[in-house]
Amino acid sequence: MDKRVFILILLLVPVFPASAEDISFSPPSGSSFTAFTNETVHRFYINVTTAKAWNITVDMNADYVNTTNHITGSCRLPVDLNVKKAVNSGVLSFYARLVFTNNNTTVTYYMDIDIVEPSPPGSLSFSPPYLSKSVAQGKQEKGYVTVKNNYQQRVEIKSITAPSWVTVDPASFFLEPSAEYTVAVTFSAANMNLGNYSDFLTFNYVVSGYSSVYRTKYQVRMTVVPPPAPSSYLCRVSITVLDSDSLQGIPDALVQLGDNFIGRTGGTGLIVFQNVPNGNYQLSVMASGYTTYVTNLEVKDTNTSKVVFMQKRVASSTSTSSSNATSVEKGVIGLPYATVTLKVDYNPVVKYIVADAESGPVGPVRIVPSMSIPNWISLRLNESKNMFNDGDYFVLELTVRPPDDVPAGTYTRQFMILGGKSPAQLNVNVILRNSTNSSTAVLAAPLGGQSESAASTVPGTVPRIIMKKEDGTAIPVNQLITVENGTLVYLMIKGDYTKVNVTWTGGIALFDDSYGGGMRTITLQILGNGDVSTFLVSRDEYGNVIRTQPASSGFGVFHFQVNTRTQPAKSVLVSVNPVHATVGKDVEISAFLVFYTQGVPTTAPYNGAVIVTTPSGEAIPVPLGLSGHTTFTPTREGTYTIGVSGLPLAAESVKQFDARAAEIPGSIYAVLKVGESYTGKWPAKFASAPKCWVDPTNAVREMNCNPESYVIVPAVAGSVFTVYGRGILASAYDVYPAGSEVTFALQTQKPVENTAVAFLQQGISAGASFLSNYVLIIVIVSAILMLILLKRRGIGALRGRTRLGG
To answer: What transmembrane ranges does the database entry give (predicted)?
Structure first.
């Protein structure tokens, strides 16, 4: 035969290389497989997809790995690992190689096998589900958490890892099965900023009989609040004003304590100021016919009392002659200055001016402006009467409230104060500006004196106001803010807080008042709608009080309203372990009753009942013990929901869990033959006809099943397959109670054998398959051979004719 023809024939002979089109695997070659040290034999499965028959050998670590030696097509290939033998040999991590051969085709499959220690069944659980504390800045608070051992073995807590602001005592201990242990958790707010902190405690532990170290986390939360100030408190101050000669009380005396407390004495000469912060104050007392009394008063007792003895003023000869006259001549109204100048921003300013009656009585006192504009500059008598005797003092209130649409500039208004021998005149100049500086009052030269800025009497920089929520969010001034009932807000005054006046109205209550670090922090609780007002307070050299609200420094009014959505008085916090359960296995349910008191939650074990609704819709009440714990065994595959009768669930509650049917493995040891029917028994009787199937599906020709048994007719010689049956157990089996939904997975242990008839049928089928695959090649080869034969015959015939012709 010609060599070229031979080579052509070889090229036409089919040699199929290994490719994804011939055979594929799931998981792919090189995948990881894990077995556990406590097993004797572990079976892995590899899903093989192919249209051909393959022989299989194990040529790497075959001492530990075994599988069937032949498959006829797609199947779920079982691979058995002799775990006990590998462990005894000290081989815990290795590769196994399966070699698949089909005629001249070879495909290798690698298995990356690891034998590891199993995780013990069980867990650690904690009560309460998380621990939260509110701690004053610089202080410590202690809480407690109970740890329960849900393993069947003894547990040793080796260590507990905590964030820097938490310490745990003790940090190591032992727990017997089902035992509980309570540890102390100390929260420290030392060197911590105000705000909320959240982190985890990590429990590192070992379980008896296992060498691995396991870890579980437990959440801890801390809210750092402003520190209390035991040195700061509110006092009741009573001032009694007496005549130094008669020791009788002087009524209607004008008493001023510091910048913010002013009033007149009653008939007995007594005046009482409430809610006065402890500290040092200037006390001024003025009364008609008496010399003004000025002293310093230290308020340090919660009930502070002071008796003031007033000296009568020496009467002049003019006043004596006047008193003897039949008609009393009016005196004059004395003012501390003729002109006052105020430099203000677009914020309200209030200034108090103390006037007096000199050289005789005055009244009725009446104030008349010289012009109608600007009406936002006003002056009024701040007294309950308008008639004053010689030497009496009375207070005038000057108010400046510039509208937003008034342009910046200088404005003037004059006031005539009538009631004396001649009218007294007060000139008011207002310099309205868009400056970021605080409002100050500049006083014009008093009669016979020199002008001086009142701002010079306010030491240091202008204080700054900052209002924040509990979470640290800043609250804008002069806006309406909606909060939950019971919310705490922090008003922080940075700078000279002695120059700031704070008032609150409506449903706002004082929660705490503290000082430290050059800052005052007032904690208020919002229990209803209300306002918080802040004023910058200053005084001039005459003792007049000036109150301003510079918005650039955060002063103004904070408006609060309470959210109308009501917080439930009680709710139930439910936790479930595990949330992904198995039918027939217990699920642990814990419940805590959460009380809300002014927005602050408090927990206690809930010893009522939870309602578990099954996937079929059946509602099952499950009573809880005194500790708020119970167990529930799911019997159906699907989703279970949890509720509580008459109470809502807390937002953090686990409201559902799911359960999957348990797959119970088993074996079929019978010798199965192609085409022959086999009847097998289920490991336990089903309550009704189960759902049944075979994997791979082409391994059997027929399959039927009933509650007690199944019938199969194998179809493929050499195959190994699994028979599945899923249904409801008629009675208890192993750890699964009656009514549980389970799946039996029964694996054949021997390859299906062939019968003579089946072998003949397969031979015919294989022959037909061979002819169908190679018919084209046979035709081509035959055609080539025919051409060669014809060629040789044709040449010989021509040669013969030549010779004959010759």
So the answer is: 771-790
At 240-291, the pLDDT tens digits run: 999 988 888 999 888 888 877 888 888 889 998 888 888 889 998 988 888 8
Tell the burial category of 140 from Cβ atoms under 10 Å away from its Cβ (0-12, 13-18, 19+).
Answer: middle
Sheet holding 580-582, edge to edge: 580-582, 656-660, 638-644, 609-613, 619-623
**Environment class of residue 188 by beta-carbon count within 10 Å: exposed (0-12), middle (13-18) or buried (19+)?**
middle
Note the CATH architecture for domain 662-754. Sandwich (2.60)
**CATH for 464-562, options being 1.10.1740, 2.40.50, 3.30.420, 2.60.40:** 2.60.40
Contacts of 139 (CB under 8 A, 6+ apart): 189, 190, 227
The string of pLDDT tens digits covering residues 172-181 is 999 999 999 9
The average confidence (pLDDT) of the chain is 82
Beta strands in 606-739 (DSSP E): 609-613, 619-623, 629-632, 638-644, 656-660, 662-668, 678-681, 691-695, 700-705, 709-714, 722-728
pLDDT in tens, 401-452: 888 888 888 899 999 899 898 889 999 999 887 754 333 333 333 332 322 2
- Taking residue 63's Cβ as centre, other Cβ atoms within 10 Å add up to 11
Cβ 355 vs Cβ 335: under 8 Å: yes
Q: Is 790 helix (H, G, I), strand (E, B) or coil?
A: helix
To 10 degrees, what angle do helices 756-805 and 3-12 make?
160
Amino acid at 463: P
Cα separation, 510 vs 492, whole angstroms: 14
For domain 570-660, the CATH superfamily is Macroglobulin (MG2) domain (2.60.40.1930)
Per CATH, the homologous superfamily of domain 124-225 is: Immunoglobulins (2.60.40.10)
Quick check: 408 and 442 in contact, CB under 8 A? no
Cβ–Cβ < 8 Å for 589, 573: no
- C-alpha closest to that of 537 among 624, 657, 440: 440
CA distances, 163 to each of 195, 216, 222 (Å): 16, 15, 11
**H-helix segments, 138-269:** none
The residue among 22, 135, 277, 125 whose CA lies nearest residue 592 is: 125
Q: Kindly report, residue by residue over 67-78, the tens digit of the pLDDT.
A: 999 999 999 999
Domains 330-457 and 570-660 share a fold: yes
Tokens (6 digits) for 640: 């279970």
Q: The pTM is what?
A: 0.30
pLDDT in tens, 380-408: 998 878 888 888 888 888 888 888 888 88
Give the number of other CB atoms < 10 A from CB of residue 707.
Answer: 16
Number of H helices, E strands in the chain: 4, 60
